[in-house]
Design a protein that fits this description.
The protein is mostly helical and 404 residues long. It has helices at residues 3-21, 25-33, 37-64, 66-86, 90-103, 106-116, 123-152, 154-175, 194-201, 204-235, 239-288, 296-311, 314-323, 331-359, 363-388.
């Protein structure tokens, strides 16, 4: 069996467990604590731990290989979801989300795995597999989570997600091979990699793509964390219906990332896709908040499809541009730092988004649109600099692991 197929199945099962709690957790926390603001903090805890673990796991995978790190994180994910099932108060719930946040740092290891086995000119399409797996996880996870919640209660959602992670671990253990041909025993492991950030951000092209990705994720999470609250309060959707809404988003995302990424990358190039994605998302997110009550099917759903279409190429294009600047021996470290930097945006976005939402439900949508419009201009400036420097990535490799 192809390593890509095995990795796709591994990511799919992993993200299906994540998708189970997406349409449920924000509303559950809001009801438990009596305030939407706590939703932002619960999601921020997840992202803070992801911020700390992602570069550490990336560097660890450079040192000992991708496979063992994936095994460890899959086991941690199972433990986190099991604890979520037992949580009846905010303390255990926060602890469970922290553990799952640590384990979720494995996405950078999965991305480094694909980069290991894919030539540079085909990486956008290969990295789109992760987005397709994410989309399929959203197809099956949210409606199943909503159904389990409605029939059995919140605890069983966590326990079922834990079971999926155990199945994932067994699958990966027996059939996922190691992808890293030359391990780096000198890879430095740091819990808070300040020195690594300084080295990477000193590289002008990498600094720009890091900042653009940070603003993009911040804007996306201004919307995402408020979406289930908005759909319940504005359109009256229950747990099952919100699950189906996320499933629709998953179908659209899977189609875009699984079938269109290669064609879009060939037709437009990664640079143009980065700009188009930011402009398109700025427009779509504003209009998502303006759909009148009672018009979810004819107003919100078409916009969700458009969101999947313009959002889908952004992640693969960003990672493809990033990978061109990185020494192959340090892909895990730099991709880990890139994802970790994005995790900071997942801390800022939910806290700011739920705070704005508590003031007015329109503020997260309008704020996200404005931030993405600014980010589109930053992407234009980045592409101009990249082209003026002759793409930059054909130059010599420096000792920091990025191409100087």
């Amino acid at each position: 069996m192809s390593p890509r197929i095995v990795l796709f199945l591994t990511i799919f099962i992993d993200l299906m467990g994540f998708g189970l709690v997406i349409p449920i957790l924000p509303n559950w926390i809001s009801e438990l604590m009596g305030s939407e603001v706590w939703v932002g903090f619960a999601i921020a805890i997840f992202s803070i731990m992801q911020f700390l673990s992602t570069p550490l796991l990336g560097s660890l995978s450079d040192r000992i290989g991708r496979r063992p790190v994936l095994m460890i994180t899959l086991a941690l994910n199972a433990a986190g979801y099991a604890l979520l099932g037992f949580s009846e108060g905010i303390i255990l719930l926060f602890a469970a989300r922290a553990l799952n946040g640590i384990a979720s740092g494995n996405i950078s290891v999965a991305q480094a795995y694909l980069i290991d086995i894919t030539p540079p000119e085909k990486r956008s399409g290969a990295l789109g597999l992760i987005g397709a797996a994410f989309g399929l996880g959203f197809i099956f996870g949210p409606p199943m989570g909503g159904l389990i919640m409605a029939k059995f209660g919140f605890a069983y959602v966590g326990w079922f997600a834990a079971l999926l992670c155990v199945v994932n671990l067994v699958l990966a253990w027996f059939i996922l091979p190691e992808s890293l041909q030359h391990k780096n025993p000198d890879a430095v492991l740091r819990l808070v990699p300040v020195k690594d950030y300084r080295e990477v951000l000193a590289h002008p092209h990498l600094r720009r793509i890091f900042i653009i990705n940070f603003f993009y994720i911040t804007a996306f999470f201004l919307f995402q964390v408020c979406s289930t609250l908005f759909w319940e309060e504005h359109f009256g959707l229950n747990e099952e219906q919100r699950g189906y809404a996320f499933a629709f988003l998953g179908v659209c995302t899977a189609l875009v990332q699984g079938l269109l990424i290669r064609k879009l990358s060939s037709a437009f190039g990664d640079e143009r896709l980065l700009i188009i994605g930011n402009v398109g998302m700025a427009i779509v997110l504003v209009f998502l908040g303006l759909v009148p009550q009672g018009y979810f099917l004819v107003g919100e759903l078409p916009l969700i499809f458009l969101m999947a279409l313009v959002n889908g190429p952004v992640g693969p294009a960003s990672l493809s541009l990033l990978s061109r600047e990185v020494d192959p021996r340090n892909q895990g470290r730099v991709v880990g730092l890139f994802q970790s930097f994005g995790s900071l945006a997942r801390v800022v976005g939910p806290i700011v988004g739920t705070t704005l939402y508590a003031t007015s439900y329109l503020l997260p949508f309008f704020s996200a649109g404005l931030l993405l419009a600014i980010n589109a201009w930053l992407a234009v400036l980045y592409i101009r600099v990249l082209r003026a420097s002759g793409q930059g990535h054909h130059q010599a490799t420096g000792q920091s692991g990025v191409k100087a």
